Request: fold
Amino acid sequence: MNNLVPVVLCGGSGTRMWPLSRSNYPKQFLNLIDEGHSTFQTTLMRMPEQCQPSILVCNENHRFILAEQMSEITQTAQNIILEPECKNTAAAITLAALTASQNGDNPILFVTPADHLITGEANFHHILQKAMKLAENNKLVTIGVKPDHVETGYGYIQQGNEISKDCYEVDYFIEKPDHQTAESFIEAGNYLWNSGMFLFKASVFLEEISKFAPDIIDCCAKSLIENKDGTVFTRLNEEVFKQCPSDSIDYAVMEKTQKAAVVPLDSQWSDIGSWSAVWELAQKDGEGNHCQGDVICQNSHNNFVHSSDRLVSLVGVDDVVVIETPDAILVANRNQVQSIKEVVSELKLRHRKEHESHRKVFRPWGKFDSIDNGNRFQVKHISVDPGKKLSVQKHHHRAEHWIVVSGTAKITINDDTWFLTENQSTYIPIEAVHCLENPGSIPLELIEVQTGAYLGEDDIVRFSDDYGRAS
Reply:
């Protein structure tokens, strides 16, 4: 598998997993099933050891979350492509294929979403080897999952003629069916769930997308010009990429090509697309409940309960999902959780921030927690990791007060630099150029009180930044 390059698609927003999943911290970065690792991390960890470093495609806003989670599991990537906005899987895969081919290489790409669960690693690697043989013969191979129940939430693939042992041509791709149609697929026995995983030579995919979706490859190629910034990150020309059509790989290529093949995977698989799916996969107590955090259940059955911050108690309740976070609580019938995305849509219509970010927000230098806010003020608990530094910046509309709780802060305001320690404070006026740094070996904890007419996160003018965010 030395010629295999994993392409991990990390761009999903995970609206059906709200309120744990937010647009700025989506489900692929959450520990939903494996409490030690996110689904993104387990996706990287299941790759064969012999394959090359991955190409990752993600939203630009998630780049530091992604880099931190890779560091936690000591993984590296050959390239991290940053999309300024999501344009669906066809564009993401095209960007990866163009990037993999830039030096005249022609690897086999293994395309996989970042948020799926697959059990049975040895069997999974065996299926990859089968798919690679087809890909070496210029097939566009998809991995179809053998269904073990009637499911209307997945697309299906109809198997055609057998190419080699347990490898088939694709007759049709079918959109998510109704219940009766899905039942007929299971009875027929030659239909597979569409997993969204693919293997093909980079050159063969580029030939086919040039044939069937030339506008997509044209936009992607132009957006990659002069993209490198000297790091592992690849940024795109935003104005060009915005013109790219938004299509799935199925619609743009796989449903039209004559080179499609499918290899069945007989393992437990899930795209973890809802809270009910998480409940199905999770370990449960004798009453059918799965509880995470500070939870008490009395005379309650078949519930999924997650507490992030506070005690959650259930009495005489069955078949519900309860998700508690510091800024939002979800209570839903376990059989109606697909409608959660409608709540997210309503939050967007009301211009509320709960669909976008958690109260606790992660930054490359640490994190902050917005613990209180009101008319013309906001209070944050800021934690700066050892050796890390915030950007040199100023604000047009707000002043700030910093009070050090623990650790040592190196403060720069305009042309003055000094140190603050526990119980000391300072004031940063509007328009003052300032910087905060942790020169110590323990986390710097401080309270920030903002005052002013506008307190939005976009009121930041950056002059220099260690993380490539300068204006």
